[in-house]
Amino acid sequence: MAFYKSFAVFSAFIMATATAFVVPHAGPPFALLNETGPHNAGKLPWHALSMRASNTTQATNTTTQTTDQPADYESHFCFDRWPTAERDVIDEGMQYLRGLGGNPRLGAGPGTCSRVSCSYNAAIYWCNDNTAEYTLDNFGRIADAAHFIAYNCEYDFNGKGRFYTSGQVFFKKHWNVYITGGERC
């Protein structure tokens, strides 16, 4: 399996490849997966992210879905900076993230970001504003942050239950998550 590292500068952010250590079966060896979003330009096929031996259980994230402030919450804003995305598509991205095993990790920031989910022009990014590499407990932390945005920063497009969302949530430990639309997935 070939791995790569790519960087591109967009505005004040450095777009980086997210990495995660996952165990494809019980015990070593470990596999290092890069760009773990489900539709990240075909760099890793969807099925490659669900490697596991048939006699093991799938990794799950034990985080909860709530519109309450996530742990370590600092602040958030809605809509202003990011184009809107369909909330149903973001929900699918959150579900995908909750199914991933491993610990998401980003290189030193501030402003180092990685797209961890992208589908139908709707994306979830997570960013590291620390001056050193930062690792989260699991991808569910990113999903929780996205859920907070999706359900606190929403509007019904036509009054018929078609919700759109965008925004960014910041955490005291100097990381953040944002939802945006208009992406080329």
UniProtKB/TrEMBL annotation:
Classification lineage: Eukaryota, Fungi, Dikarya, Ascomycota, Pezizomycotina
Secretion signal, residue range per the UniProt entry: 1-20
Protein name: Uncharacterized protein
Keyword vocabulary terms for this entry: Signal
Species: Lasiosphaeria hispida
Highest taxon above the source species: Eukaryota
